[in-house]
Structure formats: C-alpha cells, structure tokens
C-alpha cells in the first residue's frame, strides 16, 4: 500500500478493542550515519509490523541498530529510505507538525529513567501532560496520581527520585511515559538497569497496560528473562530483522 502525505491509513485507527489495528509498519528501512566515504549503514532493509494489543520484543546484539530503529519509529529522527507508517501517519513524507502529533501518541521508556531530581514523582509524571493543551492543572494532577496508583506507587507520589529505589524510579518513568494514554509504547532496554525481580515486575506492568488499554508495545531488549512476556519476538542482526 502506498499512501500520500500524512494520510490516515484505513484500518489503523486507534479505538482500543478494534480488531488488529496496525500501529507500526516499517518496510525496508535503510539508515546511514555520516556521509560520503565515512557513511556507516546501520539499518539495511529492516521491516516489521506491530498491531494494537501486541507486546513485541525486538532483540539483538549491541550495535545491531535497535535504538536507531526505535528513534525512527518514534519520530525522534528523520527517516532516509524505506516506508514507515506510525499511528496512521506516513513518517517519511509528513510535515514537522504531524510528527509532533505522532509523538504525542507514543510513550517512550528509556533504559535510564531521566527523572528530574527537583520534582516529586507526581510532578515528574504531570510534566509529560504539559505538552498537551487539553488538560487543566487539576486534571493533570488527578491523571498523574491515578497512573502512579496503577504502577503501584500511589503512596510514593510525594517523594523525590532520590528517595525511591531504582525499580521505583523506573516505574515512575513508565507512569510518566504512559499517563497520556499513548497508542504505542516504545521501550529501549527498559529493564537493563534493574535486578531480575524488578525487571520482571516492570515488564509485567507494561504487558498489563498493553492488554488493558489495547495499545501496542515494541520493547527493545537483550534481557532474555523477559522474552516469555512477548506475543512475538523479532531478532535484529546487523541492521536486518529476522
Ligand atoms: P543498538 O541499540 O542495537 O546497540 P544502535 O542503533 O545504537 O544499536 O547503533 C547501531 C550502530 O550505529 C552502532 O555501530 C553505533 O556505533 C552506530 N551509531 C549509533 N548512533 C550513532 C550516531 N549518533 N552517530 C554515529 N554512529 C552511531
Ligand atoms: Mg541501543
């Protein structure tokens, strides 16, 4: 299927519970860093799809192109070659203001929690709602608290990151990534800094969000302790997905 500039793709609408909305379609993605003689091709025709309600793991060795692909899908990096449709938008051809709208439909979870130390857990979560004009201060407050309850930290909302364990900080970061009910969760090695038990708790929580909210998750990891939580496991090696 070819689509024109920022067209909504039929069948990729977001209503949770809809059968199989295709939320990510990447086809033959090619990406280089650098140019000319120094150009390094890191993605060499990578293809994948993820549908609503799916928890998909992308596994592969360090340097295989996982983070590069994730930042392309998350509209954090401009594509070079191939086809890439995310949440109904063609990222290869759409204008910058549409990229912003796509980013608002995505929740990013990174290996490092990146919480702001001078804000409480609650304020950190609220902050990610500030890019939307839709919510009043009291709505933001309520939504953040609700999401912290959801990740089992309702009683820690008033604490600062330094007062939380590593696992609790990662759960706050996940609450911050998901508080705006994204259609797509993109997680880059979310359990890498966690011990085994906490890593599994965090993964279970992500999986629960996918199943409850009908969103889609693409989780990059080489943590084989969490493979059993995936609906599908894709392998990437040297810029190609198998
Ligand atoms: P992974 O996440 O699987 O470890 P990356 O996508 O981070 O892989 O990196 C793939 C390759 O691209 C690696 O060889 C890495 O050194 C290189 N690379 C990553 N980011 C940059 C960058 N900003 N500039 C140049 N090379 C990069
Ligand atoms: Mg990486």
In short:
This protein has 6 helices and 10 strands, in the order βββαββαβαααβαβββ. It is an alpha/beta fold and 242 residues long.
Describe this structure in words.
The protein is α/β, with parallel strands linked by helices and 242 residues long. Helix content is 29%, strand content 25%. It has helices at residues 66-73, 96-104, 121-127, 137-150, 166-178, 196-213, and strands spanning 22-33, 40-51, 55-59, 81-86, 89-90, 106-109, 184-188, 216-221, 232-237, 240-241. The strands form two sheets. A six-stranded mixed beta sheet has the order 6-7-8-3-9-10. The protein has a four-stranded antiparallel beta sheet with strand order 2-1-4-5, covered by helices on one side. The model is unreliable at 1-17 (pLDDT under 50). Bound molecules: adenosine-5'-diphosphate and magnesium ion.
Essential attributes:
242 residues, six-stranded mixed sheet, four-stranded antiparallel sheet, 6 helices, disordered N terminus, binds adenosine-5'-diphosphate
């Amino acid at each position: 299927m070819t689509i024109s500039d920022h067209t909504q793709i039929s069948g990729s609408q977001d209503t949770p519970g809809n059968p199989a909305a295709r939320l990510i379609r990447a086809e033959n993605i090619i990406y280089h860093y650098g140019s000319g003689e120094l150009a390094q091709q890191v993605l060499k025709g990578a293809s994948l799809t993820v549908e609503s309600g799916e928890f998909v793991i992308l596994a592969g060795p360090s340097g295989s192109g996982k983070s590069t692909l994730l930042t392309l899908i998350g509209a954090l990096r401009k594509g070079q070659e191939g086809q890439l449709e995310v949440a109904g938008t063609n990222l290869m051809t759409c204008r910058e203001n549409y990229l912003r709208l796509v980013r608002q439909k995505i929740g990013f979870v990174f290996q490092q929690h990146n919480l702001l130390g001078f804000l409480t857990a609650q304020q950190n979560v609220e902050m990610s709602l500030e890019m939307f004009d839709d919510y009043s201060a009291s709505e933001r407050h309520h939504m953040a608290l609700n999401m912290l309850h959801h990740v089992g930290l309702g009683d820690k909302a008033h604490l600062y990151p330094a007062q939380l364990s590593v696992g609790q900080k990662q759960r706050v970061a996940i609450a911050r990534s998901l508080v705006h009910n994204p259609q797509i969760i993109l997680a880059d090695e979310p359990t890498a800094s966690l011990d085994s038990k906490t890593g599994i708790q965090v993964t279970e929580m992500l999986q629960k969000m996918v199943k409850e909210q009908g969103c889609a998750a693409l989780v990059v990891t080489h943590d084989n302790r969490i493979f059993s939580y995936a609906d599908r496991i894709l392998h990437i090696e040297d810029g190609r997905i198998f």
